[in-house]
Amino acid sequence: MNKITFKNKIGYGLGDTGNGITFAMSSSFLMAFYLDVLGITAISIATLFLVARIWDAINDPIMGALTDKMFITRIRKHKGKKVDKFRPFLVKGSFLVIAAAILMFIAPDSLSGSQRLIWAYVTYILWGMAYTFVNIPYGSLAAVMTQDPAERASLSVSRGVLGMFGNILPTIVVPICLTQFSGEGQNAYLIAMIGMAVVAFVCYFLAYFMTEENIVHEISEADEKVSFKESFSVLRKNRPFIAISIGSISMLLGFMVMGSMSLFYFRENLNALSLMPVVSLLSVVPMFLLAPILKPMVAKHGTKTVVANASLISAIVFAVLLFLPDNVMIYIGVVFVGQIFLMVPNMLIWGMVSDSIDYNQYLCGKRQEGVIYGSYSFVRKMGQAFAGFIGASGMAIIGYNKDLVVQTANTLFGIKFLTVGVPAVCMLVAFIAFKYIYNLTPEKQKEVIATINKKTEMTS
Fold first, then answer.
1. Alpha helices, H only, 105-238
2. Which of 147, 343, 374, 399 fits a 20 to 30 Å CA distance from 361?
């Protein structure tokens, strides 16, 4: 098996830079765009986010299963040749994702209020389906690049670092555009999205050319005959998958609610919207601090211990911030510390998904990368659905009024709770999942790898 190279790691990470760009535009700015530009009510946005994300979540495991089925078809068609299972989707899906993302930030002047809501539903759901088409195969790609836990940690770090750039870039560009095009919100968002789309397009293509699928698993007759129902039934016994599902829903919910509320917190509570890009840039620093030490930490202590402890510490830090006064310097300092520990499980989670794929093969003899990553993406999308619903409905509950120059005291505290209180609760739930449900200790992981490799040798 070829050892993954630095080029492979960078290429893999760039795939998530492309994903992160449109994802961040959606999670951090779409609610503000709907409220301030399209003029959609907060409760309507909450319902839209919930319905669209649930629909999108349903598509994910189906797409994962189809990926596995399509691979079997291609194997039979090109018998005797090396066939890549996941890389081709990076090219095929990029055009769809980018076009749909741009449509999300167009506000046709000729549409009435109800028609604008329909437009929002159609474009948002279209983007979600296009994102699924590229993200499910991309996420499964790591599992066929390497089996080594330390190398998977390196891939996770690369994905985490470069994916974060994709998530941060819009938070820098959009506030600048909003400042430069003051009073022209529609143009500001659209210009920012078009610029981001170009960057995402380049990242997807670089990811395709810089990655390799090194692990080739033979397709057996049992694999060809497995049904959709059988594909998903084994997941109930896969404890690592259950743990990362619960942990990911919690982390994503906290991260997305915080992201969608940051613009409001900086603008309403801190009166420092111009500093939001600075804070976004500073959030990259924890990535560089963690990148060189996560691999040796995982090698020494195991993934389970590292992610559980980091989740607990981040929960405590954000809980403390909730009770500190609204001050931009305090916020920057405390969030910087909190993000160091928050980033640890977020960066390592992708390697843990690959480990759960190995565990699945350990349990039943079938890897089913597409099914597992598709199912994992399903639970992440459910987290996104609840995050969008909580953020938008929370704004309605706390009484946010876009026409007020200064929000009420209760509204300001509500914005703060949504920004830092929700992440504190969510990271506590993630800690419980990683500590008490995830069962892949370093010793167990060695047993899993040895068992599946032995089975592979016996069937080859």
1. 113-141, 149-180, 185-210, 221-225, 228-233
2. 343
